[in-house]
Prior knowledge:
Blueprint: E1 3-4, H1 10-26, E2 39-40, E3 43-44, H2 59-71, H3 79-95, E4 96-99, H4 107-110, H5 112-117, H6 120-134, E5 140-142, H7 148-171, H8 177-204, H9 229-235, E6 238-240, H10 253-265, H11 273-289, E7 291-293, H12 306-311, H13 314-328, E8 334-336, H14 342-369, H15 374-387, H16 389-404, E9 405-407
Parallel strand pairs: 1-4
Antiparallel strand pairs: 2-3, 4-5, 6-9, 7-8
Helix pairs in contact: 1-2, 2-3, 6-9, 6-16, 7-8, 10-11, 14-15, 14-16
Amino acid sequence: MRTPLPRRAAPGVGSLTALTLAVGMMLAPGTASAEGSPTLATTPISDATAVCTSGAPTFDDIVTAAASVLRGTVAPAQVLAYDQQVADFRAGIAALRVHRDGLPLRPEQVGVRPAELDDPIVTYLVNGLDAVRTGRIDETMSVSQLTVNDAIEVFILATGIVKIPAKLLAGMVPTVGMFLKPVVGAVFTGTKALARAVQNSIDAGCVAPNVYPPLELGDAVIEPVQVPQPIEDLAALVMNADGTCTPVAELSLATVVERARTFLDSGAVAVDRVAMHQAADAVQEFLASNRVAKVMLMRRADDLGPLVEALDLGPLTLLANLGADLAEGTALDTVPLAQVQVENAFDLATLTLDITSLLFSAGTTVAGFAGVAETVTTPLSIVQKLVLAPTDYGAPIVRGVIQSMCAV
């Protein structure tokens, strides 16, 4: 039986990942020569073929490719012992297991919307919640099966997490903070783009051939993961948007009211059903009979151009959306509140907070010009950024998750 990866072995796996990346860059695809017909643990070793196997190499591919190169320098009398050492090393690495869904996946492996957003935090949360709901979170895999691109994906997620406090601190720098913050963001975005280019290059290349047989890892091992109850409760309510359901972001307010009515009518909560139905009917009538300007139902930032998407500022998105509506001749149209989607309501809430932040910033700037000391305006600006940080950095993540998941 395979043993799970111990907590204390985590640093070792991290070091192995870094070593794997370094070795993978140094190894060039080539045919390894084999001396005679030695055996590896009673299994015949076949000559490497010249056929290109594309895709990212696994940790085991890198180990066997490196061992195959070195094998050509081993004396014939020592080949059998060398092969046994290689087999023992491979078996030791294969015995280490990790929970695959505890590690990040590439966004295209998770869903269409995560692939469009390419936000590593959104991708990780969407896959993690779906893994908890389906029970995949308990499944383990051998470290030998992880690929170089999996290691790069861990790096991308780490940079995505570090990017948040880095931008927050950059924005707090007096005077130049408003200019430094987008520069820091661009640096992290460029780093992610470079990592994606490396992944694509590795996928397009060939796995270095070797003279060793594939590993036989046996059946999958289940190791239960202790998930906090609030996360389990949340995961039970959502599922990955696979094209067969409507994402939470696209649910209309009328649909939300009906889903709430159905839930309360199921008996899960003790309520006065007659009064509940009367209240639901009144809300539906209100939503159907009242209208809102269509211009307030903003398009997604990625539908308005790369600049709007990169800045992701509520007022800028509103102006860009107004320009699009003017171009289409629909700027004066109205729609019933019943057709307003969850994402539209979320955008209006974040827009309000963005405008509040801009007005507060303008106020502290005017106060500075009026002679108020920096010892007063600077702390106020820092407090403002800390208070509104969840909106600045958390709202895009929440938006991405509700765009990528459906309500069960």
